[in-house]
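Service request form, structural biology core

Requester: graduate student, group of Dr. S.
Request type: structure prediction, single chain
Budget code: on file
Notes: please return the result as structure tokens.

Sequence provided:
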Amino acid sequence: MTASLTNAAVPTPDGTADAYLAHPGDGGPYPAVLMYMDAFGIRPHLVAMADRLAAAGCTVLVPNVLYRQGPAPLLDLPERIDTAARPDLFERLGPALRALTPDAVRRDAGACLDWLAASPLTTGGPVAVTGYCFGAGLALRTAGGFPDRVAAVAGFHGARLATEAEDSPHRLAGRITAEVYFGHADQDASLPPEQIDRLDAALARAGVRYRTEVYRGARHGFTQADTVAYDPAADARHWRALLGLLDRTFPGRGIDGDGAR
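Core staff response, request fulfilled:
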């Protein structure tokens, strides 16, 4: 695997998104996974997560979805993101996050799916999508926006997935054909219980194959090892759920549940 943080370029209708690409070292085609970053963006920890998925038998694309404001990383991040640093970081990221409208998400998602479909490193066909923090909402929007191109979608410690807004991600549930898994943190002000219930109800009404689980005692960001919210037990549970979903989605492709080939 390359150590570069941004070693791919994805042309979009709005410019070129820098991205990280990870794939098994033999160069052969593998099932495609589109991984959406959390708000802190592409950085060594997220690269390590993509590399782990690649080692399990996938070609993984991690786009910098905030590319309109510049290449990753947008900010100089501390080695470990603690509670005290978060308000300042989110204040600085706020304009970039607010600029990522649902229409922009759809354009970017289509470009990433096109890029993966054209890559000789992928097997072609529908992809799996996973996302973290606000990236879980992007994953949900991608599944709803491109139902014929997304076979599986997962989201972990997602934020604001089912608000009362007219453009809330959960309102796309009726378009989803993918299998869906969500792992929620129960210590998460950005996704309170009423939103979890609203999301479940929307998925159930739409007849989506889905499973949602609330990870008791876990905080928002529990998969992110470079933050104080990291929870090793919850992170291990997330990997079991994600790799299990990929194994069901790509049967016969040898997705390794231990995350290594």
